[in-house]
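Most newcomers find our protein records easier to grasp once they have seen one. Nothing more is needed to start thinking about how sequence determines fold. Here is such a record, shown just as it appears in the course material:
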Amino acid sequence: MSVALPVSLALLSISLSTSFLFSSRFLDAPQDQPDRDPLPRTTTLSGLDPPPFESYDHPPPPSSIASDFDYETFTFRLPLSTSTPKSTGMPSDSELASDALNEESILRFPSFKMEDAVTLGMNLRKRFRASMRHAKGKGCVISIQTMQGATMFACAVGEGSDVSLDSWWHVEGMIKVVRRTGHSTFYIERGSNAIGKPADALGLPFPEYRLDGGAFPIWLQNSSVGPIGVIAIYSGSSVEDHHMVISTLRSYFSKMSGDRSNASTTGPLDR
């Protein structure tokens, strides 16, 4: 009995000393140190696949695409001053890309519902049927989807190869570009041409992603998070398809503005 008591006291003393040292180690640690990431951060867009370089710890060399392209926002660093080629009289790729980016900031919705998608889709279909491309026998496929992939409107105009399964796969590839980048396919197409880099170098490998113009993001006004959907048409002409979407949107917003103006000027007795 006399031997067991000193042994127990000794074990208790060791236990208390260990507990004090363990707790004091954490109490003495600075409390204002920022948390550190155990793994290197990768430059991704909303959890999507990382670009062709690994992390901020291993950025691409200055001479590579990093000097021309921002992988986080998928925007091009285009020249501030551009000139129209004298030989063609056409706008440069930099100018076209800048115009397309400006369209994204202007053509935004106060709200967007299923009725808006159906109205837009039918207006786009009507506009294409009245176009010269349709008069020449061309067809198209139209799709309006949410960013999560839910279809809000879809239709085909014409017959044959223009509305085949390949065309639907093509328009899906265009929609994937908008989902990944948040920008119109025309902007990405012209921007990549302006800096002289292929789609693969931007992390948009073919055939999963298609850079043909005609897919445009659906943004809400005053939103800085990201687009909520995509409106897309594919008829085989990048420039004409993009312009058809833009003209349809401009006409739609113009009608909305006119309807609101008429509603505000109409008196109670006129309603």
In short: The longest helix spans residues 238-265. The CA atoms of residues 139 and 248 lie 17 Å apart.
